[in-house]
Amino acid sequence: MQTRASFGWKHAVALLAIAAVASVAFASVFVFYGGTITAYYQAPPVVWASGTNTNGTDIGGKTISVNITGNSTTLSIAVHPTYGYTYYKDIATIKNDDTANGYYIAIKVTNPANITSIAGASVKLIISNTTSTEVLDLGTTGTSPWYYLPASTSANVSIQFYLPGGVKLPSAVVTEIQLIYSTSNAETPPSTV
Amino acid sequence: MHAGRKKSKLFLRNAWVKLAFASLVVLLSVLIVVVNAGVYVIYDSKIVAKPQAPPLILVDPEAQGVNVTLGANDTWANITVKATTEYQEITRNGGFDTSPNGWLYGYTVYSGNATVAAAWNQTYYFAPGASGVVLLYMKLYNPSSIIGYVNGSIYLVQNVTIPNTPLSSVTLNITYYSAYTTSFSTLRSYYLFAELLYTNGTIAWSSLQSVTTGSWNNASFVIPTANVKPGETYTLLVGARVSGRTLNILTIVGNLTIYQLFDSVRLYVEPLYPSFSGSILDVNVTNGNYGGSLGVANLTLLGGTNVNVSVFLANLSGGVTTPIVVSSGLLTSSATSEVQLTVPPLGYTSGYIHLSASIYSSSVVNIPLRIRYGVGGVTVTYQVNITIIDPPSKNVTVSSTNNVPHQYAHTHLGRDKSMKGFKHLDKLLPNILENSIPLQRWRG
Lengths: 193, 444
Fold this sequence. Notes:
The complex is a heterodimer. Chain A is built from 1 helix and 11 strands; from the N terminus they run H-E-E-E-E-E-E-E-E-E-E-E. Chain A has one helix spanning 9-25, and strands spanning 46-50, 65-69, 74-79, 84-96, 103-111, 122-128, 133-137, 142-143, 147-149, 154-163, 173-182. The longest helix of chain A has 17 residues, at 9-25. Chain B is elongated and about 130 Å long. In chain B, strands 5, 7, 8, 10, 13, 16 and 26 form a 7-stranded antiparallel β-sheet that branches. In chain B, strands 6, 9, 11, 12, 14, 15 and 27 form a 7-stranded mixed β-sheet that branches. Chain B has a 6-stranded antiparallel β-sheet with strand order 2-17-23-19-20-21, with no helix packed on it. Chain B is mainly beta. The chains are: A mainly beta, B mainly beta. Chains A and B meet through strand 3, strand 4, strand 10 and strand 11 of A and strand 1, strand 24 and strand 25 of B. Strand 11 (173-182) of chain A pairs antiparallel with strand 1 of chain B, so a sheet runs across the interface.
């Protein structure tokens, strides 16, 4: 009796069935809906602006350097404090140019002042207007509470340094912050991506 | 049929209610989304601080009855002040030992013209034996007539504050050396004088004494306690007043010149109750000009109602702030006005903190003082803690003769001899002045 070939039609059907199932399982089905995002850029309603002591005289014959660039959206400050408390009053302002709407502002410390190794040393940012004052420790990462800036008003920005006598003068103390403003104070502001 | 229509109507009404409810939900959702719309704008910014050495430092004045502990970098200080009923000197740097610091000079010409100079030096060629001496030089001349009259005075100036307590005595002790030269002139009078002026410039007390020329001498002025008010600040003037006649013919212009030296000028008071008055801390500016002031925070007084304290900041040209005042144990003024502090000339400090205090016997008073200085919108604050104590009494007597340099104590040359003896002074003067620290002029 002659033996049949070992690969018959039953095997072929089975393989086809497996292939069919596999093709269904990995099928990439794409559906496309049309949509439009249009951004109408506008002048920033909240900006950094000069304070009464912007670029004023610093102690030791130096100058308080305040650079406001990028359409008033970037602030860069260089000051020269010394031992004890050094207070820089009103060296910049946060200005709400919107005549109709108020905004909530907050300061986020993204890169804290690098003086944490010096016991007792501190850097504080003070935001104030005629009705309220907010003090933020620039020595730790974090975000200040929301501070309401009514329409067509501004808030003064001051900075206080404390460096105890007896320590070696740091060559530079750098702090990176973000000014955040929003129409709402309901949520914690998100981080940039 | 009728029942079917009724059912249908009911269904329709329910549908409308459901639709209205659904619409309300959607509307509320939209409203919530709009109200809480999370639009955030974020700006990056940077603050760079480049700390620098302090442009103003604290200095220990090494004053009697004051113990100063300076902190690192001379930016804070703990000060203990001894309030006593002992004799105490209330003049600052009354011995001129290392500098003219604390003293200014002034002059007045009543008749004729004058050339003046004032300087401090460690020693003087023509009056050795003293260390740390001030020279007041005045050349008077009057070229307006053949026989001209000259009359003028030249003096040292310092503000002094009387302790805020009744006093048993007030004594001014001076160690001086007087010399003069004449050139086609005659001397008519030469006096040592001392005055206390009120801050408005009127005289509270004044006295004159004839000088002895050509030797170191002591002079003592007893000031009646009725002429000084406890707690009051006066301007003390101590100097020489001279008058003479000069001859002027053709190119000859006669002159009368005095050389008035001081080795010490010390004003002593003897208070009835434990007290102190004097400078407790010097401040020195190394760079820039600043407005300086004092403040006090969290004041705790342990001395009761018999505590009276006055603290102010003064600058080298005689300017003073308003004081911080504790009156009968109550803080009535917690901050001073401002005074300008500048880089001082050689031999001077930019300013000083002055304390006047009277307290209960055996009591202790702590004052957490803050010294502030700044320019524009920048203010620097240092902590200065003051403790005033009344330690056990130790009687001290004040001698009016203990400062006479022995070498010249008995070499009185007399008026006639002085004309010959001091002729060389005019030649020495430029060299003397060149090697000296000039005194600052009083603008009062």
